[in-house]
Write a structure and sequence with these properties.
Elements (H helix, E strand, L loop, with lengths): L3 E8 L2 H18 L4 E5 L7 H8 L3 E5 L13 H9 L6 E5 L22 E2 L7 H14 L3 H6 L4 E2 L2 E4 L3 H13 L16
Parallel strand pairs: 1-2, 1-4, 2-3
Antiparallel strand pairs: 4-7, 5-6
Helix pairs in contact: 1-2, 3-6
Length: 194
């Protein structure tokens, strides 16, 4: 039977900590297992919420903050950074965001050793306001924009990832995010991608 570790990616701040506490509780309550909470930050102490998770028997791991790599303020880089950083010997990780709350037990989909699950979500789509950014990124990647439009990708967490793919996926994910960096150095306070 394959082993799964539920992993949540969060920045070391109070806003993410309360979300991680809810995630932790719902995972323990509904899935009967203790998730790994990866708190991204510098050398500063863990905020109270993460300390409380650890005090209650939770697994909290520290990792560097990937948010500002390349001079662009983009918090979701920590999700890919979590794949690089998490310490797990499970066969698969179930990568989650801290605002995910389980209402019932999660049944991981069958995923082969060379596959990653990618749930379809309705809110991730390219529209006119994203067009220029996507056009620049696709040119940098050498991918025709019409190809992307003909094959839309719309997936969100949780992602079920075989442990053997974690490092490669994290590296490629972070590399692809760099394709969206602005051509000019950011002016203060800097562009933020939501």
């Amino acid at each position: 039977m394959p082993r799964f570790d539920f992993v949540v990616s969060a920045e070391n701040n109070h806003y993410m900590a309360w979300q991680a506490m809810l995630f932790h509780f719902s995972c323990v309550e509904k899935n009967g297992c203790v998730p790994i909470v990866v708190a991204h930050g510098g050398d500063e102490p863990l905020v109270a919420g993460f300390r409380r998770i650890a005090e209650k028997g939770g697994r909290v791991q520290r990792a560097r903050n990937y948010r500002f790599d390349g001079g662009l303020d983009y918090a979701p880089r920590n999700t890919a950074g979590t794949l690089q950083s998490v310490e797990s010997d499970a066969d698969y990780v179930v990568l989650c965001d801290p605002d995910l709350v389980f209402l019932r037990p999660f049944e991981p989909p069958a995923v082969a050793a060379d596959e990653v699950s990618f749930e379809r979500v309705s809110y991730l789509h390219v529209d006119q306001r994203d067009h220029e950014l996507l056009e620049r990124a696709s040119a940098r990647a050498g991918v025709d924009l019409d190809t992307l439009r003909a094959n839309p990708v719309s997936g969100g967490v949780p992602h079920v990832i075989p442990s053997g793919l974690r490092a490669e996926l994290a590296d490629e994910w972070l590399r692809c995010e760099e394709l969206f960096a602005p051509d000019e150095p950011p002016a203060e306070p800097g562009p933020q991608l939501n």
